[in-house]
Amino acid sequence: MTSMSTTSSAPRAAGPNARIVVDDVRMQFVLRHNRSLKELAMAMVRGKDLGNTFMALDGVSLQVDSGETVALLGHNGSGKSTLLKLISGVMHPTSGSVRLRGRIAGLIEVGAGFHPDLTGRENVYLNGAILGMDEPSIRARFDEIVAFSEIERFIDTEVKHYSSGMFLRLAFSVAVHTDPEIFLIDEILSVGDEPFQRKCLDRIRELKDEGRTLVVVSHDLNMVSELCSRGIVLQRGNQVFDGTAADAVAHLRSL
Amino acid sequence: MSAPAPLVDQPWTEPGKGAGLLDVVRRRYLLKLLVRKELRVRYRGSVLGLAWSYVKPGVQYVVYFLALGIFLNLRGSIEDYPVYLFSGLVVVNFFTEAFGNATRAVVWNAPLVKKIFLPRELFPVASVWVAGVHFVPQVVVLLIGAVISGWRPQVLPLVGAVLATLIIAALATGLGLLFGSLNVVFRDMENFVDLANMVVVWLSPVLYRWDQVASAVPAWVATVYQLNPITVAVELYHYAFWWPGTVNTPATALPPDLLVNSLVAVVVAAVVLVAGQLVFRRVEGRFAIDL
Ligand SMILES: Nc1ncnc2c1ncn2[C@@H]1O[C@H](COP(=O)(O)OP(=O)(O)OP(=O)(O)O)[C@@H](O)[C@H]1O
Ligand SMILES: [Mg+2]
């Protein structure tokens, strides 16, 4: 949530309606971690770098305006999840900057922010609080959240006994009830069954109609091109296309 | 659901860059849930549950009392030795539990750290808070024991006890932030901290008297020993809960300069807290990558 972030200056070249500004972002990972004393000593003696590095994002810049729905597309390992993690603040970029306006809720992975040993009920409160809600507003929305997820019977069961679909239902339900201006969704709808997927999509359309900003990662290209107005394609950490969602899908298929 | 707030009202922010410990204060409700979570998770599937946190110090106390109080007969040279011993032990137990758990807090919460953003300082602070939950009932037991051996409350000693508790909490939080963040990169830290925690009880006048150290080591070592914030906290607890209940023990049984040493300990604890926060913020960027 941005409520706890410190205020920064406006990014350069930010449009008047911009919600998310990603400016020349690079993200470098070290592929092999040599951590034992022996390996550290060897690396020092040979003067070798510790493991080889890898650019997961290599100079990505983009702007998302308020109310836009953006599909982030690309093959496996192209850097989509990494970009969402940078936008949500889970990771910081190696260089470049990310700036936001508004409260953000990220569904980066199924069950993010859930603890397996807590019950569904406890997890709703914990996850709601992580996403920036206070106790009265979680309490007020609790019934609505559970009703949307349709898992009333299991709400007092520890979530480690949930199926992955049930996990998704509860997590999605909490996230859509936290009132964020920016919504990040990473490949999570795939584990829901057909009726629940449809319900989620309806809810996402509602969010869109309310003018919320959405960034969606999915390999379901048909769904995405129908849902989103704009599409961005990543290829090995580089942004190779930015245009309408339908054109983005076509571009990705031609890669 | 209400429509999103107008854009112009909202400031630009940098995701993942919070205000550190200040955010912990701001997000007390989340802290409370994390503390409750840790207590729940710690005692899941356990019949004795929270009672375990009394069994451990209880057994430890009996062993120390038998070995040192009776076999080595420290009972003979320290008046009210049971209260003396226990008032020092609760302080050290609070510190070691808080420090040990805070060091592991970020690694334990890897699933949360990796997938969702929240001020990460919450995890070590929640661990210190959990240690506090275990600490308070031990103080109650201490009070009962002290009253039985003739202790009556006095203002200044109790102020000293509060100060000592704050020193320990700040010190454990600062060290927990420092070692807890480094532990993400080098898992050796938690083993190192376990080792340090094992030694703590012997480096403060918990089991014996301070002057037994002073008479055995060079003066400068004795001074360093006295400036250890944990030693100061232990002596403040002696001053608060042990000394007022004794009859034949002169005030010189307490170390001289306790007031000055307390002020030094406050400064040391504050410096450690700030240093811990600074290191934590530097290393924090690697949490989601390395875990
Ligand atoms: N913490 C990390 N340490 C090292 N490498 C990482 C880390 N996180 C991601 N990577 C690497 O970065 C690259 C991009 O990963 P990312 O998860 O962003 O891909 P993606 O586009 O989401 O792929 P998918 O469609 O499979 O979800 C991958 O090669 C991955 O191995
Ligand atoms: Mg991914």
Strand ordering within the main sheet of chain A: 6-7-8-4-9-10
Radius of gyration of chain A using CA atoms only: 20 Å
The fraction of residues in strands of chain B falls at under 5%
Give the biggest beta sheet of chain B. Answer: none
In the CATH classification, which architecture of chain A applies?
3-Layer(aba) Sandwich
Bound ligands: adenosine-5'-triphosphate, magnesium ion
Structural class of chain B: mainly alpha
Unreliable residue runs of chain A: none
Identify the overall geometry of chain A. globular
Please provide a written account of the structure.
Chain A: One of its GO terms (molecular function) is ATP hydrolysis activity. Chain A: It holds the Pfam family ABC_tran. Chain A: This is ABC-2 type transport system ATP-binding protein. Chain A: Belongs to the ABC transporter superfamily. Chain A: Keywords: ATP-binding, Nucleotide-binding, Transport. The complex is a heterodimer of chains A (255) and B (291). In chain A, 36% of the residues lie in helices and 27% in strands. Chain A is an alpha/beta fold. Chain A has one domain (18-254): 3-Layer(aba) Sandwich (Rossmann fold). The radius of gyration of chain A is 20 Å and the shape is globular. The mean pLDDT of chain A is 87. Chain B has helices at 21-26, 28-42, 52-71, 74-77, 81-108, 110-115, 122-148, 155-185, 188-200, 210-214, 219-227, 229-242, 258-284, 287-290; one strand spanning 12-18. The radius of gyration of chain B is 21 Å and the shape is elongated. Chain B has one domain (20-35, 50-290). With 291 residues, chain B is mainly α. Chain B contains 14 helices and one strand. The longest helix of chain B has 31 residues, at 155-185. At the A-B interface, strand 1, helix 2, strand 5 and helix 3 of A face strand 1, helix 2, helix 6 and helix 14 of B. The complex binds adenosine-5'-triphosphate (ATP) and magnesium ion (MG). Adenosine-5'-triphosphate is lined by residues 29, 56, 74, 76-82, 187 of chain A.
